[in-house]
Amino acid sequence: MKAIAVSEFKGIPTLMDLPKPAIRPGAVLIKVQAAGINPFDWKMIDGIMNNGKTPHQFPLIMGVDGAGIIDEVGEGVTRFKKGDLVYGQFIHMPIGEGSYAEYAIVPEKSGLTMAPMRISPEEAAAVPTSGMTALQMIDKLKLKKGDVILINGATGGVGSFATQIAAAKGLKVLATVGDDAAAKRMHHLGAAVTINYKKAPVFDQVKAKYPQGIDGLIDLVSNKEDFHHNLDLLKEGGGAFTTVFVADEEGMKARNLHGGNFETEGGPQALDQLSRLIDQGQIKVPVENRIKLEDVPGAIEASRNGKATGKTVIVF
């Protein structure tokens, strides 16, 4: 089978011919129809999970998010049957049996569930990591209808989902954008206000519009200094999350703010919640770029260099 893999940590992603995985007890073999690209995918080949406790295998097939058809079920599998359309996070131990391949083997008990009915496999593959991250951050901010939330980095995958989920919950979303086209898109996804970060500092624009403060912040882009400066926009008791891991959580508590560094907790229940929102029409899945397997090395390089735009999905 064709797959994108590396032969060592920090290796260059390469299109390889590798053996089709053999079915094993408690697992399913998926004929992959599409795989979503996330920054975590290249962080994984750089060794972010190489802590001495997590097993890895080489060649290490990249990829976490995917969607496809169950091709075989192993002994003891009860949740799925051959022919089921599924999606989710394919990551499991050992690291290296990922979604950037024509076939992937995934334990039944991993973050896998039935795919939403209303969208294509390409759209489904764009959902898992970004969608669950957005959903869980919005839930954990514990905001109420009418509250104001700033999403800094709104135009990417997580930001696009967070904007829609927040708007569906009745929150007033302030979304950062870089141009008029992005502003139009974010309004279409539910943003009440767009903040063009190229015209003036985001902090200054939000402070001018909401001198009394805002209720929540999701910051997907800021460095440590800017994130902590943005906390000054929050009312006392407000909440903020960063996915860049730059928060001083003890300092936030001292200021009566909740939140901090955010890590996604994947699983079928969160995916099922996203599926319901998608099938109810409350979430549109933003896929900006559809590529082939041979295009992946270039897409990974663009992601590394911060030049990727929108959600990219590999279509098989």
Automatic annotation (TrEMBL):
InterPro entries: ADH-like_N, ER, GroES-like_sf, Lipid_raft_assoc_Zn_ADH, NAD(P)-bd_dom_sf. Gene3D superfamilies: Medium-chain alcohol dehydrogenases, catalytic domain, NAD(P)-binding Rossmann-like Domain. Residues 11-314 form the Enoyl reductase (ER) domain. Transmembrane segments: none annotated. Pfam families: ADH_N (PF08240), ADH_zinc_N_2 (PF13602). PANTHER family: PROTEIN AST1-RELATED. This is NADP-dependent oxidoreductase. It comes from Chitinophaga qingshengii.
